[in-house]
Hints:
The chain is α/β, with parallel strands linked by helices. The chain contains 9 helices and 7 strands. It is 45% helix and 14% strand. Strand 4, helix 4 and strand 5 form a beta-alpha-beta unit. Helix 1 crosses helix 9 (232-243) and helix 4 packs parallel to helix 6.
Amino acid sequence: MLLKFIICSMELLLNKKVIVVTGGSKGIGAGIVNVLVSEGAIPVIVGRNKKDILKEVSNYKEKGNEIGYAFAELSKPDECEKAVNGIIKEFGRIDGLVNNAGINDGIGLENGNYEDFLSSIKNNLAHYYKMAQLVLPELKKNKGSIVNIGSKVSSTGQGGTSGYAAANGGRNALTREWAVELLPYSIRVNSVIVAECLTPLYKKWINQFENPDKKLKSIENNIPLEKRMTTVEEIANTVVFLLSERSNHTTGQLIYVDGGYTHLDRALNNQ
């Protein structure tokens, strides 16, 4: 008996798919938007920084690319709802969501307080839930997918960042929970976990040290694969693959794109 195989290119079949990306005007979010555009998708940036968003959108539209945007302070549910309703009105559908926006705000245990801790959870986790809930009716129609961006801090700890660590632990838990809850609708939910990625925000943090180059080198030496930082493009490529039909039997996964930083034996650094 002969088996017939369909040989196809690795096009991700995202042409004209409408993908909402929170925090999509800078860093990892901007990288995701760039890869989505290259795959023929229609990314829609949602965030509060009007200047950065309009600049990003203008650059793509000048090149003839289709892209959208909506302004929202993501910690405010009514603004999230207004943004999603506007996207549906403009594009008629939503096929995917990338929950990306957030910031390591340094709310620790010893030097933090209860109110700031709750604020950190709200700013780094609550809008992941709200945005997913708002786009869910559209994802049900289109067998869409969700990718949550997370941080290795939820696995390794960092010190002095209880709020951000708890929020990222919550992102991981919601990824698994939603993957189970949404099985009846064939909606896939995965998470991409970031460790050391040289974003503009990361560069700003590095530059506060007396010798930024030395500090960066010391971090790179702890990354097993090639002793270098993960690039924004490498994160984005994984995210967009997970959004695509090429990964249509992958759900509930926490995927660490970190050069082995989180899980491989640190003794490797001495080799």
